[in-house]
Write a structure and sequence with these properties.
442 residues; disordered C terminus; protoporphyrinogen ix oxidase, domain 3; alpha/beta; 3 domains
Length: 442
């Protein structure tokens, strides 16, 4: 028997692709994890922005098949609001429209990375990973660091960028060519840039249409069943609803920090190492406003400290079905450290003030819905401690028959596509190895 903990996309994909017996346990009353939607007074909100963009044809084919033509394609309309003006995302190839002195700083700083490059990382003693701040300066230059990359990312990560490593940025923040940067400074657009120039989103029902599409092919789900203890030596899992399961293999998609804490017989040194893994939490503030077409954009980034949020998005521009006619909906995201909390009413007040300063809301706008969700595990921090200890933690779990996958299971920065792919690959591995054909232990 294979036990799967967590019915988010990684857990659902694992169950969907397994050929042998399994049981899927979910602590909530519904599947989806953070890939869920909810309804308030005629508005449908996701748990922050969830957009589908694919790099793997096989996963795109799977998802499109599951959703049966219910996805709509959108050409990205994302912007950055700084210096009281909008520029297109990504910043590094769209500086046209900013004050001339800012454009000059960004352009000259980038050219300096080409004419006076830092010593190659291959030539340096690589005793530890390159910091994210060093990567920004080396690849984008001082101007782009000053005017967007450093203030935005310090707001987002809630940590000094010298503390973060750069081993996650390659597919999210590619270094542009000089031609792209110059064209962007002159307002010349000859190609899309970035990893998500277009995206897919369900025409109806919000992003939870995706996890729901797996459910007809996934059996044996126990809801309201939170994992509370794992005896790895006995391969026994205990759940909050009183169930006790002897398993052959355990697939966990919960945060690896929580998983290790629940493994009573895990090595003490690795338990302490897992406790030191860091993440950032996010207040997801969802608003329903009694005015249509607040913005023609999909989402906007806010690097400046005048705005408490780092991003605001407009779900009804993904799908008009997400709100009543004549209205608009927004999601606004504010990072915070997991140990620091603010009163919801105060957060919503700050959000409204920031949106008014940014010209998105008017003082007389009627907010019909204001709902805040605090996402404890939102984004994991890639720091030197993670680089040092995570491989050993995952290897020891694997040695004990526990496969920790998904964004938080592997403690990484990945997409919905990646979660589905990890579940698929693990299930195929278990199918080939015969583990999926195992029967319950006596």
């Amino acid at each position: 028997m294979i036990a799967i903990v967590g019915a988010g996309l990684a857990g659902l994909s694992t169950a969907f692709h397994l050929k042998g017996p399994y049981r899927l346990f979910e602590k909530e009353k519904e599947a989806g994890g953070l890939c869920r939607s909810y309804q308030v007074d005629g508005f449908t909100f996701d748990l922050t922005g969830h957009l589908l963009h694919f790099r793997q044809a096989a996963i795109q084919t799977l998802v499109e098949g599951l959703l049966g033509g219910r996805l709509q394609k959108h050409v990205r309309r994302s912007y950055i609001y700084s210096h009281r003006t909008y520029t297109e995302y990504p910043f590094q190839v769209n500086t046209y429209g900013l004050p001339p002195d800012v454009v000059r700083e960004c352009l000259l700083g980038f050219i300096a990375t080409l004419t006076n490059p830092s010593p190659s990382r291959k030539d340096q003693a690589q005793t530890e990973p390159q910091s994210f701040k060093a990567w920004i300066l080396e690849n984008l230059g001082e101007g782009m660091a000053k005017h967007f990359m450093v203030p935005f990312n310090e707001k987002f990560w809630q940590a000094p960028l010298d503390e973060l490593t750069s081993d996650w940025v390659s597919w999210l923040v590619p270094k542009p060519d000089l031609k792209d940067v110059v064209n962007g400074a002159l307002g010349i657009k000859d190609k899309a840039f970035g990893y998500n120039p277009s995206f897919l989103y369900p025409a109806q029902g919000g992003i939870e249409a995706l996890p729901k599409a797996f459910l007809p092919s996934v059996a044996e789900i126990a809801y309201g069943a939170e994992l509370i203890e794992v005896e790895t030596g006995k391969r026994r899992a205990t759940f909050g609803d009183g169930r006790v399961l002897d398993y052959e293999q355990l697939v966990s998609t919960i945060p690896v920090t929580e998983l290790v804490r629940l493994c009573a017989d895990f090595p003490q040194g690795l338990r302490e190492a897992a406790a030191g893994l860091r993440c950032v939490s996010v207040y997801s503030v969802n608003l329903g406003v009694a005015r249509e077409r607040l913005s023609d954009k999909h989402w906007i980034y806010f690097p400046e400290p005048d705005y408490p949020f780092y991003r605001a998005g407009f779900p009804m521009n993904f799908s008009p079905s997400l709100g009543p006619p004549g209205c608009s909906s927004l999601y606004v995201e504010i990072s915070h450290r997991p140990t620091e909390h603010s009163r919801p009413a105060e957060v919503i007040r700050q959000v409204r003030g920031g949106l008014e300063r940014g010209g998105i809301l008017k003082p007389d706008d009627d907010i019909l819905v204001a709902d805040l969700r605090d996402i404890r595990y939102a984004y994991v921090l890639f720091d030197r401690h993670r680089a040092k200890v995570l491989p050993a933690i995952l290897d020891e779990l694997q040695r004990r028959g526990i496969h920790s996958i998904g964004r938080y299971g592997r403690w990484e920065h990945t997409s919905m596509e990646d979660a589905i792919d990890q579940g698929k690959k693990l299930a195929e591995h278990l199918n080939r190895s015969g583990q999926a054909q195992s029967t319950d232990r006596p």
